[in-house]
Amino acid sequence: HLSEGRLILGLGASGPQVVEGWYGQPYPKPLARTREYVDIVRRIVRRDEPVDFHGEFYDMPLREGGLGLGKALKSTIHPFRKEIPIYLAAEGPKNVALAAEICDGWLPLFYSPKDDAHYRRCLDEGFAKSGDASKRDRFEVVSSLFVVPGDDADKCADFIRPFVALYAGGMGAKGANFHFEVFARMGWEHIANQVQELYLQGKKKEAAALIPLEMVEDVALVGPLDKIKGELPKWKETAVTTFLVGGPASMLSMYGDLLA
User: Fold this and answer.
1) Of 85, 79, 90, nearest in space to 1 by CA
2) Helix 93-102 crosses helix 30-46 at what angle (to 10 degrees)?
3) How many CB atoms lie within 10 A of CB 247?
4) What is the pLDDT of residues 59-96, one digit of tens each?
C-alpha cells in the first residue's frame, strides 16, 4: 500500500552455510522447497481462500506433531493488488530455469555477456515448462552491474575486487558456494580456487588482490568513459532487461547520461 502496488518481491534459497548456520534449518532440495514457498506466498497474497497446503516441506495447517489446533487461515492484510511480481535470486542452471517457470523475474548477481547464451538456454527451459506462451515477453531479468569510471581501469577494478572476492571466495563453504560456480563457468575456476583458499583463511585483502582485471571486466564496466561506452552494446544485447547499477556515490550524477 505504501508503494501503491509497485512492490516487487525478491526471494532466494540462499545456501546451506547460511540457512543451517543462521536460520537453524536443514537445506534439502532447495528447488523443490522454493517451488512450494512461491506457491504459498502467491496464495497468501491473493486471499482467494484460507491457505490449505500440504507439501513435502510445508504443512499448513500442521497435521502432525502439534496440538492439533491449527486451522487454515487467510491474511488479514488486503493487498493493493492480488498478483505481486516475484523475482527469484538464482545462479545455478536449474534454479534459473525455475525462475523462468514459476516466477515473474530473475535476479542474477553476477551476469556476464560471455555467458548470455548459457542463461538464455536456462530461461528457455523454464519458459517451456511454464506452459505460458507469452511469459517470455513479460519476464524481467534484473541484474546487478557495477559501473566505475576512471582513467585507470585497473584502479577502478579495485572498487569491485573485494566484493567479487567475498562472493567467489567466502560466501559459502567449499563445494557449496554458488557464486564460486558462476565464475568457474566463466572460465575463472583456477583463480576462484585460489581466491577461495585465501578468503577462507581470513586473508581477504590477499584474495581480492588475486583477481585480475579481466575477471572484473567480465561482470562490470570499469575504466575511461569511452571504454565503458564501447562495451555497453554487448550488455544491451543480453537477456538482461534492467540493470541495478552500483558504484561510487560520487559517480551517481553521471550514470543517467552514461547509460541512457
Assistant:
1) 79
2) 20
3) 20
4) 999 999 999 999 999 999 998 999 999 999 999 999 99
